[in-house]
Write the structure tokens for this entry.
Amino acid sequence: MNWIRKKIDEIKKPFQPGEKYEKFAPAVNALDTFLFVPNHTTKKGAHIRDAVDLKRTMITVVIALIPALIFGIWNTGYQHFKQLDVEYTFMDAFLHGAIKIVPMIIVSYVVGLGIEFGFAVKRGHEVNEGYLVTGLLIPMIMPVDIPLWIVALSVAFAVLIGKEAFGGTGMNILNPALTARAFAFFAYPTYMSGDKVWVSGATEVSGISGETILGTLAAGKEVAYNSADMFSGFIPGSISETSTLFILVGALILILTKIGSWRIILSGFIGAAVMALIFNALGSSVFTNNDLMNFPWYNHLIVGGLAFGVVFMATDPVSARQTLKGKWIYGFLIGFLGVMIRIFNPAYPEGVMLAILLMNVFAPTIDHYVIQGNIKRRQKRLKLQTAKTS
Amino acid sequence: MAIDIKVKRGLKLRLKGEAEKIKSPALKSKTYALIPDNFHGLVPKMLIKKEGTPIKAGEALFYSKYNEKTKVVSPVSGKLKTIERGARRRILRVIIEADDEFEYVSHDKLDPLKTDADKLKNHIFEAGCGAFFKQRLYDIPANADDTPKAIYISAFNTTPLGADFEFILKDKKEHFQNGINALTKLTDGKVYLGVDRNAKSFLHDTENVELIRVSGPHPAGNVGVQIQKTNPINKGEKVWTIRPEDVAIIGELLSTGKFNAERTIAVCGSDAVDRQYFTTLIGAEINSIIEEVDTNKTRIISGDVFTGDKAENGDHINFFANEITLIPEGNHYRMFGWLPFKDNYIPSMSNTSLSRLSGHKEYVVDTNLNGEERALVVTSEMEKVMPMDIMPMQLLKACMTGDIDKMENLGIYEVVPEDFALVDYVNTSKVEAQEVIRQGLDLMLTEVG
């Protein structure tokens, strides 16, 4: 270990202040701090510090994403071979998925981190770790057959317009991964919706219909899957959002490590359940022709991007709410509006993305009112005090 | 009638190296120093300017430029050795070379309960005990011309490795009570004493105070938490705080006529060899209590791990400190140390370290920052350790941007840096929260006054 450390110190020499490549120090530091937690010590204040830092936080989220990612890779192959109706092994399915998805992940990280490094060098600040999560999230919420150039463009849009334009990690208003998806969805809708994009290779074979469950319902067709399929994830959909089971494994990792907000996750599911129950109640009597309305409330929780969105997107600490009370309201409204949009928008039945983006925009307002509550308590006390003395 | 407070939010951190409850006299220190920086906001004006001038114990050395009645007196008799100055002739330390036998300034003996309030206040300030009082708003030395709405003392120490006030004061019960009696004359309101609700202590029997029985993790023992839960500070109000051992010094002054600057110092921390309590005097040399250490390997903290000052061999103990803490320096690299569940010997409030699973084990924690400073990204962690009705992240942001209105609205008047010590500790972004709050308070002081 020591010789690696010495080697790095040697490599870093020309990047020290006053040296030739001083400007590129953030890029080299990023690589160095990836290998080693630096020897920085506290100066005063609290002389001791918690073991957690932003790198550890972000890597924990990446670890929480891995079960859903691995399942997504396998499910891509599974859906492909199932539609083709050919013999396949577990490894065949996994490899097929990997060949499709790994390049997307590589493109996402290369483009995204490239821009992040560029901005760090330009602005002279250290590379923040936020993109470690965003870079993995973006491919995970894309349809499997999306061309790599759209992934690259979406990443560039999300990082440049969604994040760096606001000042970088910690300053953005919208969730960058969802910004990427929203960009792809509105700029290249044919690659992002329909019945051919959710199953790998579906466009090349005629007769294959790989609609998502929500798409099927919106089109008024019969759903061929039961609740167990929906929960376990053996269904077509965006790469990693089909398996609620593995998403919940991720949620468990986030909650147990205390990295994700259990308040948002729980209130998100509650909000969705409440809305779905309302429509279930109305649906049977009022809107008899809308299958999405009559879709059982518990199924609403396990299909589409709801679970993935609530667990991994809504909990993004930057674009989510900062106040504890605010988190309850924020999560609840994401679930609530997500199901509402899903039901009323047959053209694009997945409403969670829009619900989260909408709540990202409204989040400061929620916080504002929570903070005002705190301020008012203080002002009330002051008024009482003045009344007492006068 | 006592007030009971149960604090839920906070963090109990078990560190290795608590001081054993043994008290011995420290070696006699050759020099003693008073450090003006220990009194934030006090601009010292020297009363004795010439080096070599003989000084009595209890004789005033300097006073506050803006607050002339606040005087800082010599803990020992001897001669003024040096006035150490820094940039722009700022006084860093006033060092006194001690005599073998001390000669004390003699003060009148007074019965606080029978003495007129003004006379008592003048007496206390004249004798140099005014320097013991801190004022909230702003965490600055108290002004003798003010009458605070209440005086708070917290005799419950919840900081990790914190010195036990009960043990420190048990030989000085009468002086402590006498001091409390004096404090009742300095305020129109009440004198509040915070004590450990779960401990059996003579402190529970203190008279003439409003007893606050507190339980819970740190910062339950912080006087700020106790103030907010019992009688919060509003704009325009002033509350004084004082440490329990200083109350005993005031009590002793009034009953004996002598300013006895005795301090009981707990030597603690995983790197400390002789972990116990030592009696010495205010401003003694650190090396009269602990042996010299290699400061590349060990950090000497004059005070506790959360709010103390980094010290070097040859430095003197802080005016208010009752601890010297020795912990390992963390100036080392850790390969892939950012991976969760690696280096599990480092505790974390998040559960990305398995340290919690080790149950009641005490940790050896070094001074490594465990990361680098980043933008404020992660939310809610500050709230978990903030039992006051304060929104820590929002207040920090307001202080960072210097937004005075927001700072006022979010409760800047109710906090001092030590209330943000745990925020310093837990926050992922490694932002220096205590420093930000101090700057915020200084801004308020200059802009609002």
About this structure: The first helix of chain B runs from residue 117 to 126. Chain B touches chain A through 75 residues (CB under 8 Å).
